[in-house]
Amino acid sequence: MTSASPEPMPSRRALPTEAAAPRLEIRNLRRFFDGRAVVDDVSLQIQAGQVTCLLGPSGCGKSTTLRMIAGVEMQDSGEIYVDGKLICDTVFRVPPERREIGLMFQDFALFPHLSVADNVAFGLKGSKDQKRARVEELLHKVSLAQYIDEFPHHLSGGEQQRVALARALAPKPRIMLMDEPFSGLDNRLRDGIRDETLTLLKEEDAAVLLVTHEPEEAMRMADEIALMRSGQIVQQGAPYNVYTRPVDRAAVGFFSDTNILNAEVNGALAETPFGQFLAPGVPDGTEVEIVFRPQHVRIDFDRNGRGPHPTPSDGVAARGVVKRARFLGHESLVEFRMDFDGSVLKATVPNVFLPDAGRVMWLTVRRDRCFVFPAQG
Ligand SMILES: Nc1ncnc2c1ncn2[C@@H]1O[C@H](COP(=O)(O)OP(=O)(O)OP(=O)(O)O)[C@@H](O)[C@H]1O
């Protein structure tokens, strides 16, 4: 439920030209450990050439989902299909080595006693020349052709990771499963390797399911994000849609800091110190939360005890006092103690803005970026 929110964007995934079955489809997967459903009725479809990120906090069941698709973990119920063909249910099971799935994990462990070329060729079939051609093609694509005859320990972490990617993609898997593949890498390397990886994955046309707990990574890599919590997918869609049309407060909070105002609905309106918010269809007397991100708070200077005039887009200004301001590199985070109830609200401002603690200022919020949800208490 939102008071107003931006128009949804179409998914970035390419539509199949004909009614092709999804490359990967999982239906109603469940897995119990000690009587607890750690994966609880998860369904997903991924087309060839599409990258879907399974995004969620630690322990929410992402890796277990991946392991079931890889075939190293058995589901308690549900089915897995590849190109429309059943590969696994509770009685039938194609073994992992025949699923044509490429795997890549954080500890990508290259074989130390094999050269880069032999690592990449490891899962390849065909003549010596065919294998060599594929190895050269992939090492060229990951910009490591010059290391073809080196051993892994001569390569940096980032280079080894790219070799592991080439190795996983060498047999042209129909599906790539990637579990936090970049988390072992230095921050400075990560962005470049993510971009290179994405380019290569797209060229190879596999359906990719990438597990991550980092929203930024998912936003950067995914055509679609499947947001997972407590064993379930709570929201799925293009990154822009998941970010701008979150299903609940936790979905907002997973991507950024949040500010929360409490209010009660009367006549389909929630009255707050920032003005009224639409709450269509919500019964009178219902407690709601108005949730908004710090980047959607606008700060104005005090003008002889007054703030800016109310506007339809920013609503009414509320007075606060600077509690603390910190420079974060590309933006500044300013915390305010609000006059209306003593609560703390956060605002981010591009570049450097570091007002002194105690300074009186006026806050407004971008009304089209606020979400109204039932109160969670
Ligand atoms: N073999 C197992 N036996 C018992 N419990 C398990 C087993 N494997 C996973 N779990 C539990 O299932 C839950 C989900 O684990 P899973 O590894 O799938 O989560 P995750 O979302 O990938 O987390 P992380 O990002 O930390 O790896 C966790 O509570 C975990 O402790």
UniProtKB/TrEMBL annotation:
Domain of life: Bacteria
GO BP terms, alphabetized: quaternary ammonium group transport
Keywords: ATP-binding, Cell membrane, Ion transport, Iron, Iron transport, Membrane, Nucleotide-binding, Transport
Keyword Glycoprotein: no
InterPro entries tied to this protein: AAA+_ATPase, ABC_SmlMolc_Importer, ABC_transporter-like_ATP-bd, ABC_transporter-like_CS, ABC_transpr_FbpC, Mo/tungstate-bd_C_term_dom, P-loop_NTPase, Transp-assoc_OB_typ2
CDD domains associated with the record: ABC_Carb_Solutes_like
Location of the ABC transporter domain: 24-255
GO cellular component, one term: ATP-binding cassette (ABC) transporter complex
A single GO molecular function term of this UniProt record: ABC-type ferric iron transporter activity
PROSITE patterns: ABC_TRANSPORTER_1, ABC_TRANSPORTER_2
Keyword Transport: yes
Stored SMART domains: AAA
Name assigned to this protein: Putative putrescine transport ATP-binding protein
